[in-house]
Structures are given as C-alpha cells and as structure tokens.
Specification:
By secondary structure, the chain is an alpha+beta fold. Helices cover 39% and strands 24% of the residues. It has one domain: GIY-YIG endonuclease (3-Layer(aba) Sandwich), CATH 3.40.1440.10. The N and C termini lie far apart (30 Å).
Length: 88
C-alpha cells in the first residue's frame, strides 16, 4: 500500500482547501491546472501550504475530515508550523 498525505492548499483569495493524496506536489499541479476540485478552480493560483504524512488511505481521509473542521485561524497556525523543504 502506498503512503498517503493530507494537504492544505492556500488559495489566491486567502482561503484554504483540504484534501488527501498519494503525491502532494502532483496534486497541487493538478489544482493549478484547473483539474483539481471545483472549489479551487475559481481561486487560482493555489500554493501547497501544508503536508502531513499518513500511514494509509483510511487514516488520511479521517485526518482530512478533522482538518476541514478547524477554523481558518487554526489552519493558518497549522500551515505556519510546516516547513516545505521542496520550496527552499
């Protein structure tokens, strides 16, 4: 079974989109190409702001639901704690 990740995208309007995937960078490219979620299509460009590894799909989906219930400020704090090594 492949690793899964929860991710947060920061949209151009300052909102956050939460999802899960097996490849966060690929998924962010799909969103920016307009082939992601309907929510992000009208809020381009998006930036990968947070990635959290998960052991499997079920856990990733559970964590996605938890993150979606967080307030905007809590999501901001989560993103602020994240260091994206691929952007350095």
């Amino acid at each position: 079974m492949s690793a899964c990740y929860c991710y947060l995208l920061e949209c151009a309007d300052g909102t956050y989109y939460t999802g899960w995937t097996t490849d966060p960078q690929r998924r962010a490219r799909q969103h920016n190409a307009g082939r992601g979620a309907r929510y992000t299509r009208t809020r381009l460009p998006v930036r990968l702001a947070y990635i959290e590894p998960q052991p499997d799909r079920a856990t990733a989906m559970r964590r996605e639901r938890q993150i979606k219930r967080l307030s905007h400020a809590q999501k901001q704090a989560l993103c602020a704690s994240f260091v994206n090594l691929s952007e350095e």
